[in-house]
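Narrative of accomplishments. A recurring question from our advisory board has been how the design workflow behaves on a single, concrete structure rather than in aggregate. To address it, we present the structure tokens for one chain from the evaluation set, followed by the sequence designed for it. No filtering or post-editing was applied between the two.
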């Protein structure tokens, strides 16, 4: 029976309904699925050694004849041994199998087998334990580089390797080529068929590398083609022309903007007056002054008579922003309002009416800003702050929130601007979607940012305002706990305030990431202990994710108002909170956090004039863990730390819990394949620039693959 990639696995001998079900668990239904199920690793079973010469430090193959009938002995319940002796011309090996009684039935005296495993020398004897084996000459699982696949209960690697062997041997003909010939040749990539064969059954490790390189490129290329399409479509979208001069805005600031702030504002100003929709990410280290940059956007919108919505991830941050914006922009005539879930009843109604009537220029809030029933009057700019967990799909949804056109008065007289109007009305009076500005406080390695924010333009703020004293960071073991408490006390005596952060399971909502660690009880108990025994004379407060928003706010407000000396907290204070008088942060169980997250936390201190400190407590004896934390003591540069984090922990932390909305990758590894990522992205952008909709016949398959990859976000491509 000829097999094809569409052939269901159930048509193969040895795959009954039971097995088929288990294979389905691995996503394997057809021969084609097998080709897509990639090995996790490989075993080099090529070389066959004489027993005498077999290496002892690594597994290898030996070819030997079974010299006696296998013997089974039962050691105790649940443990049986099969023992067998095998010989070649150079020696004898004693082989033991644990709990594999069936071997007695299938292994015959006098028959030659190839065994794969480590040959150990026990005294003068050679021994092997649980080797893989097959009859000499079979050549199915030995004499080659064997792929080792991800498995599930009831499916052995031999079964899968055998099935895949057939798929590779019989189903590769006419495998379609996704990569356009020019791209493939231009980047010296092997053909699809060669790649598929050698990723499963490589001729040698060089062939494997060639195959892998191509498959990684292919995967990243398809992904970046999708992102390039998104970006391209957006940048073709019409946008309202909004004119604003950073220089003029700077006069409102109580400080001179840094070079980085200036550059970010210039980028934004250029976007806003380009006539195309802005989709920009401002990525800045903690404390680099992103708020002022956001304020520039809001100011420009107001000046041009369109509304701006500024979205923060928590109510607390929203309130803080509303205060800052009010202070900065009200003198310039910008009308600022705060809209969160806690604004209720009559107050809410008045606010919504004012918003719909165009009597508010800047509304600051949480995601409530985009809930049903919130109507805008010419929404021209949306700013999302501190949201590295804010995915492609959410951004698209946001941009789609239609700026309903107002029966709005001409550009406000409060800005006696000559005729600048934010409106680019079509014949129907419809407005283009708002400009989008995303502010991220989590430095992300540049290359990763290309993926996570692949559909955005990026401005990087890698400069801190002048006069900051870097936070001094120390790694401290349990033995110095009492000294740490003493240090906390001294800071408080000097009039400062202190954060003590512990890891805790946060409720899984609102975009806060879980940090596994102490459970809630432990955190509560710890806070109680601090309050009652360690610092009974200090004012100690407590926040964690399970408190009601009101309680959380009350504690935070008390801390920022100076009514608390010490705030014990879980990571809810991770982003954005600004209490300049806080000069010390202690992090308990620091080894449980990612470096970038610790850096983020540390950014809560060092915001005022006082020398600030961060103490990382750890009881970990792991040198690797301590080494990782030392990287944090060595530098205050968030981008450098992010690179280090990526190197040490891989990209998982940056991607969060798939909230980025990007498809899952199978072959590529962001930490290891950065160079290829750059190549693939470059190629993708060139291709999409030439064929935006991928409609050329040569790109048909590519287009389909992009659609498949982004299946969950299909609406983005319509
Ligand atoms: P982040 O980028 O972390 O959001 P903020 O916008 O909260 O940073 O700014 C941190 C602090 O630095 C604020 O107190 C802000 O007033 C101050 N700041 C911002 N820009 C400057 C500047 N150019 N010169 C001096 N201080 C600044
Ligand atoms: Mg901020």
């Amino acid at each position: 029976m000829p097999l094809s990639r569409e052939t269901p696995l159930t048509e193969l001998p040895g795959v009954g309904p039971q097995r088929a079900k288990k294979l389905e668990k691995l996503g394997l239904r057809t021969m084609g699925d097998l080709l897509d199920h990639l090995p996790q690793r490989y075993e080099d079973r090529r070389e066959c050694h004489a027993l005498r010469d077999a290496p002892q430090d690594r597994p290898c193959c030996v070819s030997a004849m079974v010299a006696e009938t296998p013997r089974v002995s039962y050691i105790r319940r649940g443990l049986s041994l099969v023992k067998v002796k095998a010989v070649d011309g150079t020696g004898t090996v004693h082989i033991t199998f644990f709990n594999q009684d069936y071997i007695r039935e299938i292994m015959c005296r006098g028959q030659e087998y190839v065994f794969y495993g480590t040959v150990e020398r026990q005294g003068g004897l050679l021994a092997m334990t649980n080797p893989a084996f097959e009859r000499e000459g079979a050549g199915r699982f030995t004499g080659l580089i064997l792929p080792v696949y991800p498995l599930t209960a009831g499916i052995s690697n031999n079964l899968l390797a055998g099935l895949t062997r057939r798929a590779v041997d019989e189903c590769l003909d006419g495998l379609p080529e996704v990569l356009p010939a020019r791209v493939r040749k231009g980047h010296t990539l092997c053909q699809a068929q060669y790649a598929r064969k050698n990723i499963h059954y490589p001729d040698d490790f060089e062939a494997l590398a060639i195959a892998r390189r191509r498959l990684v490129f292919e995967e990243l290329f398809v992904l970046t083609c999708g992102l390039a399409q998104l970006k391209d479509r957006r940048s073709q979208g019409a946008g309202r022309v909004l004119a604003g001069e950073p220089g003029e805005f700077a006069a409102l600031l109580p400080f001179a903007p840094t070079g980085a702030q200036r550059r970010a504002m210039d980028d934004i100003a250029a976007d806003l007056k380009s006539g195309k929709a802005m989709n920009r990410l401002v990525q800045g280290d903690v404390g680099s002054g992103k708020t002022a940059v956001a304020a520039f956007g809001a100011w420009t919108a107001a000046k041009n008579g369109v509304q701006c919505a500024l979205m923060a991830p928590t109510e607390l941050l929203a309130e803080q922003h509303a205060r800052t914006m009010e202070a900065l922009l009200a003198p310039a005539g910008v009308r600022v309002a705060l809209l969160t879930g806690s604004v209720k009843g009559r107050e809410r109604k008045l606010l919504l009416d004012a918003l719909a009537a165009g009597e508010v220029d800047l509304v600051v809030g949480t995601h409530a800003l985009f809930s049903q029933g919130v109507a805008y009057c010419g929404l021209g700019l949306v700013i999302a702050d501190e949201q590295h967990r804010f995915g492609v799909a959410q951004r698209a949804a946001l941009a789609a929130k239609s700026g309903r056109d107002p029966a709005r008065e001409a550009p406000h007289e409060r800005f006696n601007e000559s005729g600048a109007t934010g409106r680019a009305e079509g014949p129907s009076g419809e407005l283009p979607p708002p400009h989008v500005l995303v502010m991220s406080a989590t430095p992300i390695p540049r290359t990763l940012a290309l993926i996570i924010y692949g559909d955005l333009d990026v401005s990087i703020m890698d400069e801190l305002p002048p006069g900051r004293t870097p936070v001094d960071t120390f790694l401290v073991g349990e033995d110095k706990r009492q000294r740490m408490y003493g240090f906390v006390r001294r800071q408080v005596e000097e009039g400062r305030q202190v954060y003590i952060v512990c890891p805790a399971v946060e409720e899984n909502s609102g975009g806060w990431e879980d940090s596994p660690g102490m459970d809630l009880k432990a955190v509560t108990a710890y806070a109680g202990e601090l309050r009652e025994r360690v610092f009974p004379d200090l004012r100690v407060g407590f926040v964690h994710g399970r408190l009601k928003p009101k309680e959380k706010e009350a504690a935070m407000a008390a801390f920022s108002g100076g009514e608390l000396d010490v705030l014990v907290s879980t990571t809810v204070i991770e982003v954005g909170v600004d209490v300049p008088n806080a000069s010390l942060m202690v992090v308990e169980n620091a080894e449980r956090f990612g470096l970038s997250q610790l850096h983020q936390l540390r950014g809560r201190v060092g915001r005022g004039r006082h020398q600030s400190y961060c103490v990382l407590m750890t009881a970990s004896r792991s040198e690797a863990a301590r080494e990782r934390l030392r990287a944090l003591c060595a530098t205050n540069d968030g981008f450098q730390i992010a690179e280090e984090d990526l190197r040490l922990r891989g990209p998982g932390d940056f991607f969060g819990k798939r909230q980025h909305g990007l498809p899952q990758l199978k072959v590529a590894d962001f930490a290891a394949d950065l160079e290829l990522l750059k190549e693939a992205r470059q190629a993708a952008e060139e291709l999409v620039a030439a064929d935006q909709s991928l409609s050329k016949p040569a790109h048909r398959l590519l287009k389909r693959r992009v659609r498949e990859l982004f299946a969950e976000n299909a609406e983005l491509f319509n």
